[in-house]
Amino acid sequence: MQRNIDTLTKTIHKYLERNSLYVENPPWEIRKSDLGGFGVFAARSIETGELIFRDYPIILGPRAALTCPPLCVNCYGKDNLRPCEKKCGLKLCSDKCQNSSKHQKECKIVRQWQTRPIPEELSEKLGKVFSPIRAILLSDEDKKVVRCLKAHISDQHGFEVDVMKKVLYLDVKEDEEMFMRFVCCVMDANAFEVIVGSENNQSSVKGLYPLGSLANHSCTPNTIHVFDNNQHMIVRASTFIPKGTEIFHSYSRVIWGTPTRRFHLFRTKHFLCKCQRCEDPTEFGSYVSAILCKNCKTGKVIPIDPLIHNGKWQCEGCAESINKKDVAALSSLLGSTLNSFTNDDVEIMLKFITTKLATVVPENNETVVELKYKLIWILGHERGFTWTELSDDHLLAKEKFCGELLALLELLRLGQCKMRGLLLYELYCCHAEQKRRQAKAGSASKTSDKSLLLEAADILMYDVGAPPEIKKLWPDEIKLREQ
Ligand SMILES: [Zn+2]
Ligand SMILES: [Zn+2]
Ligand SMILES: [Zn+2]
Ligand SMILES: [Zn+2]
């Protein structure tokens, strides 16, 4: 085992060196994890906010999901797509992308594999299954990196290769096919969603980050990861990490309750999380997955053992027990109600929180939290609810929700997580708008709350998606990197 750790460490170090990302005596090291397999650990104590590592995607490509719009295969832009002049079947957005050396190489291999022209209507299909083709063009050294990553070997993965052979009739050699199927399994286990492009023209793609993917999951992660302008992954400590502690990401949404998170992780990443938060029936006293008892009306119903699938749930107040099925039925009913709301239903949503929801679930239940989060992104942002259009009541509601969700994140021990950064900024904007209104009315304005803005700027540092007002506050070296 020791030798394997050494080989893996060397492979990763060399990969980072090739991408000019290696630093002497990094604060991380690869070790055997209690979760099975390998993990990334703190080689020394790491302070909150400290940079742990940067990583570069060994493969970056369009996502296969049908809901993703077609993208330029070179720059991931959405506009002015036109078929490649050399008829490889892919679409590009400009002469620059058409003539890029990257596309020339990729174009050549696809044309070599073609047994018949790829009609324009199948061009999108080819674009979506393109990531494994990219893996074929990696250097031998980079292929070695991919080979040492964890893969979910399963027949359900590798449909991309089936599309290449059976839909696009590409003549792929057997060894290439085997490697591409393996790459699909590695991507399935490890790929991250990456946002590319600027504010108004963002696309979502998937990237394989070798070191990033070695870090395991926890529903109480101790890191925050963001992507910069050049698709680098930047991983920083969201809490203090003592020496020897395992370094965790979260692959799930932190505001979901335990059954929802575990189901999602099982479906997408094929494992059952047993972290500290998943083990705790109250989720650190937050009661995110709890519902209210029908019998005593005020008691909170929680799972007796949250790690047992379909186990019994029980009221903390009157000890009445309930089947998991009944809890799940209520959750799915509330979930579908939530999904049926559109941006124009602001009043209905606000009322739903204080009436129906307040009688069936406790205040931090995932549906309530999700709804508040949704409202935070409508109020101040969407048409009809922009900052200047917002009523005083709506402004107050938004401010209140920001405060409540920030308190919940603290209960969940999430430290300087990304959602905290986003909420702090929204709260700062609420205060700024209130100040503008008070100044207009001639009344004394609230004291300055620059601290919210500064903390948000620190948490979201390097993030390509951060609001421009926040980016202005970054140190010059980071601003320069952005250009
Ligand atoms: Zn392009
Ligand atoms: Zn081409
Ligand atoms: Zn967990
Ligand atoms: Zn009860």
From TrEMBL:
Gene3D superfamilies: 1.10.220.160, 6.10.140.2220, SET domain. PROSITE patterns: SET. Residues 26-252 form the SET domain. It comes from the Eukaryota. Transmembrane segments: none annotated. GO terms for molecular function: N-methyltransferase activity; protein methyltransferase activity; S-adenosylmethionine-dependent methyltransferase activity. PANTHER family: SET AND MYND DOMAIN CONTAINING, ARTHROPOD-SPECIFIC, MEMBER 4, ISOFORM A, SET AND MYND DOMAIN CONTAINING, ARTHROPOD-SPECIFIC, MEMBER 9, ISOFORM A-RELATED. This is SET domain-containing protein. It comes from Zophobas morio.
